[in-house]
Amino acid sequence: MSPPLVILILSLLLGLQPITTDLYLPALPALTESFGIRPAQAQLTLTALLLAFGLSQLVWGPVSDRVGRRKVLLTGLAGYTIAAIGCAFATSIEALVMWRAVQGACMGAGTVCARAIVRDLYAPEAGARAMSKGLSGLGVVACLSPLLGGLIAELFGWRTALMSLALFSAATLFVVVYYFDETLQERYPEALRPAVLAASARQILGNGSFWAYALLCTASFGGLFCFLAASSFIFIKLFGFSATAYGMVLLSLSASYISGTFLCRRLLLRLGVKGAVRVGGLLSLSGGGLMVALLLGGVNSAWAVIVPAWLYMLGHGIHQPCGQSGAVGPFPRAAGAASALAGFLMMAVAFAAGSWVGASMDGTATPLIKGMAFWSVSVALVAWILVQRAGPRPEASSMPAAGVAPQQGRA
Questions:
Q1: Residues 188/402/387/219 CA torsion (nearest 10 deg)
Q2: Which member of 111, 162, 243, 410 lies 3.0 to 4.6 Å from 88 by CB, making a disulfide possible if both were Cys?
Q3: pLDDT of residue 333 exceeding 80
């Protein structure tokens, strides 16, 4: 596969997660009214999806090390498409939550394999740059998702918004079927044996570099999810935004995130991974700190939330490429398992953060601001302490070279 094709596939696979969450967020209040439920019940459609997403990665990762990335992607994308159709036709909130959980479980296949593909094909520094390009594509998807979701929800209703997810996944499945070549050069036949799984987990969880970079991703995503879990109700119900206007807010945050991924690539060339992460930590802390300062200063407006969130998202665009590639870098034979554990950690924290925000919602923006402030401090501490103390990343000579043609071809 050519480098542009690899980046396109990474963008589509990584884009599954933001389109699954962001596109339907503008429709969440309408969905709540349609079923006659409370906002906390409606948020189960998001938290159930992310809990299943995180747990499923623990399965998809080792399976992809055993059978290859291609088979896992075909299975996961097909299941996601079916689940998306089920969501659109759900007749009760219970059925919708169930289908969203299935959707999240299948979505895990794409995310796990995307990170593992980067490790299959690239050495560490090149992997961080490739991941930043793929995450730039994710940012484009995230930019378009809330705007399209708001327009679709206003014009056609929330069911059509959910059906559009099936179209995206079907298009991604088409690309994988016809253009994706297996990237796993040497399959690991014993990857699913309990003893091997336990040994791999011990090796990964005992690695300081894994924890530093995985916690970097996790803390950064925790702040983002606090925003996603509460912002639709805050902007639409509290500040009086329309669904389309709220979509524009999310679009602006995605644009800031994309800018962060471009900044990440420049910083990697000048400062290396650890230097880039230091700058990202400053941006994250500035965003959370400014949000708290404006709250304490009595500034109660939408801009007091949006502007600091822009700063936070700039840092997020640096932390995710560096963190996601760094977490799998030391494990060439268990990239899927390392990707799975890092992804599970991210989603477990997101689930906890979303549950806390949902239970704390009081009709003001305070719970969102408190959540983002907590995670901005956490990100800065991880970026400035744990990542800086992490051991040296493996040399490129000990890993598969970038652009090496897979031995297996299409499975």
A1: -70
A2: 162
A3: no
